[in-house]
Every structure is written in structure tokens, then in C-alpha cells.
Fold this protein.
Amino acid sequence: MKTAVVAVIVRAGKVLVVQRAAGIPAAGYWTPPSGKLNAKETEPQALVREMQEELALAVRPLRCVWQCPAEGAAYRLHWWLAAPMSSTLDPAPAEIAAVRWVRPAQFARLQPTFTAGRHFFETILPGLPEWRGHRAPLGSTLEQ
Ligand SMILES: Nc1nc2c([nH]c(=O)n2[C@H]2C[C@H](O)[C@@H](COP(=O)(O)OP(=O)(O)OP(=O)(O)O)O2)c(=O)[nH]1
């Protein structure tokens, strides 16, 4: 089965999500950014390439934290933590309609979202040591 990578990019206790553009599959859906692997490409290579193409964002892939089937099951989604290496975003309009940094409670209010995305924010993300470590020292000031 083919693989797509999903990038979990955290900054200041928030996760980067994108709204898929009109004219692509699942238009309008909010999700962490993703992309399919090209032939012979590794998952980290695909992550770096897709974040560059879709957002002009340099990232450093850290580790795969979750896997799940895509809806319709044509793809397997591999969710990777990735560190942002640049501070600006330049979304490609053909693929991305909007970009936001969200806390899990804010993601829960976005519509529409995929079942996998909701599960990730509700269940997987809160259990990751990197996420807890990221948030703990920041306290409540960045939570507003
Ligand atoms: N990003 C994302 N995609 C999901 C989720 N659940 C789910 O079924 N999908 C589907 C939507 C897409 O068809 C597929 C992800 O592949 P993709 O992001 O590479 O799709 P794409 O059409 O933008 O392809 P590409 O050209 O950018 O590679 O999985 C989810 O939670 N997040």
C-alpha cells in the first residue's frame, strides 16, 4: 500500500495545520500538512520536499509517532514529528487555502476535519513526550 507522510510541526505549544485548497481531493479539510511519497523516496525525504513545496518551510524530520489508514484506505498515513527550521511560511495556493497554528482544543473546533486528525489531536499528541516537554516550561502565558 502507498504511503503519505503527515508533518506534525510544533511551535510554542501549537501545531501547524492547513486547510486543503479547492480543486484537490478533500478540499476544505483542515489537517496537519501531508504529501505522498515519490518512487524510491524515503519518508524523511518526502517530508522535507513536501513542506518545501507546499509551505516553503524547511523542516528537520524527527521521528514517526503514529501510523493509520487514510479514509478510503488507498494510503497509509505516517505521522512524523518535524522541527521547523525557518520562521516564515509561504503556502502554495494550488494546494493550501489557509494556514493556522492551533492548540488541540482549537483543532477540535475546525471543520471539516478527518477522523484521523481528530484522533491524533485527542489521543496521540497528548501522550508524546516531545509535546509535553514543549508545553511544560511555557506555562499558561502562551496558551491564551
Ligand atoms: N493530511 C491528511 N490526509 C488525510 C487524513 N485522513 C485521510 O484520509 N487523509 C487522506 C487525504 C489525502 O487523500 C491523503 C493524504 O495524501 P496527500 O496529502 O498526499 O494528498 P494530496 O492529494 O495533497 O497529494 P500530494 O500531491 O500533495 O502528494 O489521505 C488526515 O488526517 N490528514
